[in-house]
UniProtKB/TrEMBL annotation, chains A, B:
<feature type="domain" description="HTH lacI-type">
    <location>
        <begin position="9"/>
        <end position="63"/>
    </location>
</feature>
<keyword id="KW-0804">Transcription</keyword>
<dbReference type="Pfam" id="PF00356">
    <property type="entry name" value="LacI"/>
</dbReference>
<dbReference type="InterPro" id="IPR000843">
    <property type="entry name" value="HTH_LacI"/>
</dbReference>
<dbReference type="Pfam" id="PF13377">
    <property type="entry name" value="Peripla_BP_3"/>
</dbReference>
<keyword id="KW-0238">DNA-binding</keyword>
<protein>
    <submittedName>
        <fullName>LacI family transcriptional regulator</fullName>
    </submittedName>
</protein>
<dbReference type="GO" id="GO:0003700">
    <property type="term" value="F:DNA-binding transcription factor activity"/>
</dbReference>
<keyword id="KW-0805">Transcription regulation</keyword>
<dbReference type="InterPro" id="IPR028082">
    <property type="entry name" value="Peripla_BP_I"/>
</dbReference>
<dbReference type="InterPro" id="IPR046335">
    <property type="entry name" value="LacI/GalR-like_sensor"/>
</dbReference>
<dbReference type="GO" id="GO:0000976">
    <property type="term" value="F:transcription cis-regulatory region binding"/>
</dbReference>
<dbReference type="InterPro" id="IPR010982">
    <property type="entry name" value="Lambda_DNA-bd_dom_sf"/>
</dbReference>
Length: 332, 332
C-alpha cells in the first residue's frame, strides 16, 4: 500500500497507541462490550490523534447493505437530470447513502453493463432518470427501483413525474386572470410527450379564449421567432402567447420586440421550465413554470429509501409545479 | 431480505441447481481449482439460468480496493463540473470503477462530512472540482487526489486545468488573421481569476491592435449590451470585440444589431466557453473557445487511476483549448 501514499491508520495502530488489545480498541470505538469509561476514552483519544476512520465496508457487509444507490441517466447534457440528481444526492447523503453516477448516453448496451455492475456492487436501490417525459421500458433488477421524470411503462413500478398538465393549465389561468382573451400556444415537436401534454392542457384551460391550433416546431428560440411571424399573419389581434419552453418564449419576445409589439402591454408571453439562463435573460424576463426538479429528486430518493426499508409505494406520482410570475405578463 | 422484493440468487442456489457443492460452484465461476470442463460448464449454465451475479464486494475487500472514486464538486448549477464529471465517469467506468457524487454546495462543513464518509468507504481516490478557476485549499486525506478545473494551491498536488491564456490568445490571433486591427475586450468581474487571465492574454496577443483597456463587468448578456454602448462612445471605429464569455458575446451581438452595426462585416465578435445554448442561439452564431471539459474530466480520471496504481504525476497540467469558428467572425 506504500505506493498509494501515506497509508490509513489501522485499528492495530490505535490499540498500540492506547496500550490496549485490538479487540478492546474495537469494542471501545463501537461502544460495545464491558469496558471502563477511562479505557474507552483513551482509545477514542488515540483514534482521534491518529486520524483513524472506521472502515464502513465491514458494517455494510454485515448489514447486508452497501449504503449506496445507483443513478442511471440518459441525459448527457443534464438539463433535466442534473437538478434531479442533486436533489436525490442531497436526500441520500443525509442518511449516509452514497450515489453512484451512471451515464448511459442513451446506449442500451451501456445501460445493461451498468445494471450488472450495480447489482454486482450490491447497491441498495436504483434511480432511473432521463431527458424525456415519455414512459420508458422498466429495468429488470432484483432490487428496489424508482423512476424519475421519465416514468416506467409498468404502472406497478414506482415513478415520480412533474404535473405537466397542471403546469401548462396554470399559465393559461394566469393569462385569463389578467384579462387576456385571445391566447395562442407555441410549443415543441408534436411527437414529444411533453409538448402534447402541455398543448392539451392549454387547449382545455383556454377553451373559448384559444386562438387557432397549438403550433408545434423545434424547442428553440429560432422556432419561437419564426412562429410569431406566422401567427401574426393569421391572428394579428392575439393578446397572449403561452409557450412550451423558455427557449421558445425568449424567441417570441425577441421577435415581438423587433416588430414593435410591446410585451406584455400588447401581448403577454409565458415560458415553461424556469431555466434561469433563458427566463431571466429574456427581454422582458419570463413568467414561467418551475418543474421543481430538485424537489422531484428528493422525493424520488425518499421513495427509494422507503422501498429499501421494505415499504414500497407503487404507481405514478405527479408532483405539483410552481408558476413564477415576472415582467413578460405583469409588466414593470 | 424478502421485504426488499425478490432476493438475489446466491452461490448456494447455483450449486444446488448444478448438483455440486458450494465450493465447487465457487471454483467453477472463479476459474480456480481443478475441475472437469464439463462440471465448470454445468455451473456456468446454472448461474446464467438463475441470473446469478457474483458479489464484487468480496473482491474489493480482498484486494484492499473499493473500485470506487469520490467526486467532490462545489458547482451546484453544474455548468462547468457536469461535463468534467461525465468525462471522468466515462473514463472510470471503462475500468469498472464507480463514481460517487458529492455536492458540497460550497459549504466547508458539508465538504468535511463528505471527506470522512469517502475515507470511511475506502474509496480508491478523490476528484475535486468546482465552478471557479481560482486555486483552492487542498483537501487532507490519505488517498490519491486530483484537482480538476479548480487547481490546488499546493504545487506538489496533481491539478488539471484548461489553458485559459492560450484560449484567449487564440481568439485574438484569429481576429488578427482576418485583418482586424482595432480589437476591444469585454469580460467578467476583474476579481475573477478567469477574467484576469483572459484579459492579460488578450492584451499580450493584441499588442498594438488593442483598443482601450479591457472592460470588466458581470458575466451576463446585459453587461455585454451595456458595454457596447460605452465602447462605441469612446471608440466608434472598433472592428472586433473579443469577449470573456459566450453570454457577454451574445449580448454584444444583440446590441450591435439593434444599433445597425453588422456582425462580422462592421465588427467581428468572439465568445468564450462554447456553451451551445448561447453560442449557437446567438445571432449570428459565435466563434468561441471550447474548454474541452469532458476531455479534461477524462484526463483527470486517468491521472487519478495512475496515482491509485502507484504512479502519481505531480504538478499543474494545462490542457489545450479549441477555437471553434462560426459566423460571428467568418460571416455567412
Amino acid at each position: 500500500m506504500a505506493s498509494r501514499g501515506p497509508s490509513l491508520p489501522r485499528i492495530t495502530d490505535v490499540a498500540a497507541l492506547a496500550g490496549v488489545s485490538t479487540s478492546t480498541a474495537s469494542k471501545a470505538l463501537n461502544d460495545t462490550g464491558q469496558l471502563r469509561e477511562e479505557t474507552r476514552e483513551r482509545v477514542r483519544r488515540a483514534a482521534e490523534q491518529l486520524g483513524f476512520t472506521p472502515d464502513s465496508r465491514g458494517r455494510a457487509l454485515s448489514s447486508g447493505r452497501s449504503f449506496t444507490v445507483g443513478l442511471i441517466t440518459t441525459d448527457s447534457s443534464g438539463r433535466f437530470s442534473i437538478p434531479i440528481m442533486l436533489g436525490a444526492e442531497d436526500a441520500l447523503s443525509a442518511g449516509e447513502m452514497g450515489l453512484l453516477l451512471c451515464d448511459t448516453r442513451d446506449d442500451p448496451l451501456r445501460e445493461q453493463h451498468y445494471l450488472r455492475s450495480l447489482v454486482s456492487r450490491r447497491v441498495d436501490g436504483i434511480i432511473v432518470t432521463g431527458r424525456r417525459t415519455e414512459p420508458r421500458a422498466p429495468i429488470d433488477v432484483p432490487i428496489p427501483v424508482v423512476y424519475a421524470f421519465s416514468p416506467s411503462t409498468d404502472p406497478s413500478d414506482t415513478s415520480v413525474i412533474a404535473d405537466d398538465h397542471g403546469g401548462a393549465a396554470s399559465t393559461v389561468r394566469h393569462l385569463l386572470s389578467l384579462g387576456r382573451r385571445r391566447i395562442a400556444h407555441i410549443s415543441g415537436p408534436v411527437s414529444h410527450h411533453s409538448a402534447q401534454t402541455r398543448a392539451a392542457a392549454t387547449v382545455e384551460a383556454a377553451a373559448g379564449a384559444l386562438v387557432g391550433e397549438p403550433m408545434h416546431g423545434e424547442w428553440s428560440e429560432r422556432w419561437g421567432r419564426h412562429a410569431v411571424d406566422v401567427l401574426l399573419r393569421t391572428s394579428p389581434d392575439v393578446d397572449a402567447i403561452s409557450c412550451g419552453s423558455d427557449q421558445i418564449a425568449r424567441g417570441v419576445c425577441d421577435r415581438l420586440r423587433e416588430l414593435g409589439r410591446s410585451v406584455p402591454d400588447d401581448i403577454a408571453v409565458t415560458g415553461y421550465d424556469n431555466w434561469s439562463v433563458m427566463a431571466l435573460a429574456s427581454r422582458p424576463p419570463l413568467t414561467t413554470v418551475d418543474l421543481e426538479l430538485e424537489e422531484l429528486g428528493r422525493r424520488t430518493a425518499n421513495l427509494l429509501l422507503d422501498a429499501i426499508a421494505g415499504s414500497p409505494h407503487r404507481g405514478l406520482m405527479e408532483l405539483p409545479t410552481r408558476l413564477v410570475t415576472r415582467e413578460s405578463t405583469l409588466g414593470t
